[in-house]
Amino acid sequence: SKLISLGQLEMTWRSRVHFHPLLVRVLHKSRLRYYGKPEKKMDMPYQAYFEVADGSGMMSMVLWNSLCPEWYNSMKVGTVLLLEQYAIKTSYPFKTQPTPGDSQMKRFATIEISLNVRDPPAKISIIPEEMVKPEWGLPEVKYRFITRSELDDLPNNHSCDVIGLVTFVGRTERARKKEHGEDFWLYRWAHAIDGTSDQPFILEIFATSQPDVFERIHPMTYLVCTQMRVVRDLTENPSSKIYLTTSNESQIFITGWHKGQPYTKDTKVKNFIQWTKTQNEDDQMKKTVIGGYYPFPRPPNNFLKY
């Protein structure tokens, strides 16, 4: 069928009533957002953002309401979609922006693709990877993997992806979203090593929309976390360390979930796998820890400084 590119769509959307189909690849995926309120009667108040791209650039796509439980888990990073019957809206200005793996990619930020149950009813097709043709010109998913030895030189809020062998995982903890609110964030701390430094990655992992993975992080698993943000104490407090925290677009994967993921082709991921083959499993097992209370960043050693 006659396709339209994201670039053409941005230039001509105001003058169109009907839009030609789009062929795009998912590059980023946000956590599922629930926006229900007691006074509003909505069956499924869910929303999820995706960043999708074709040869012309990248644009946001929003999945609404009952389409979320139907499609959210099938639309993975790397999935190719054929979109027919979609709406175009001006972009929501306050949404989070993932950092693209390809810094040269053009971003169309004025509009977003909206997929709804009606007006018009979205028609979504997933194209199996083996049927994707090179002449379609769809971009590959690119990552920004770093090693532990590179982390110390990165600035605060820098976006990166990491892979490591888990040596510690803490219990699940809760933090209030607002001071007097009743909603909580769930998170847990983890340490992961990659053989490039004596220090581990310290990871603050918030529960994303992947409960099956979040609950099964345990020592000796290979952990991949994408779209992590660097957090460093800008007040130069020597007792605090640099750590990484999840963002709205973070995805986490553990042993058993890696097969077929686009990052398996990444050079740094391959290097990490080579390093793990040189390690003695029993020696690493002796160094692992699970559970307990993990105060971080640690308070100073003496009370006066505190």
Automatic annotation (TrEMBL):
<dbReference type="Pfam" id="PF17659">
    <property type="entry name" value="RADX"/>
</dbReference>
<dbReference type="InterPro" id="IPR012340">
    <property type="entry name" value="NA-bd_OB-fold"/>
</dbReference>
<dbReference type="GO" id="GO:0003697">
    <property type="term" value="F:single-stranded DNA binding"/>
</dbReference>
<dbReference type="InterPro" id="IPR040893">
    <property type="entry name" value="RADX"/>
</dbReference>
<protein>
    <submittedName>
        <fullName>RADX protein</fullName>
    </submittedName>
</protein>
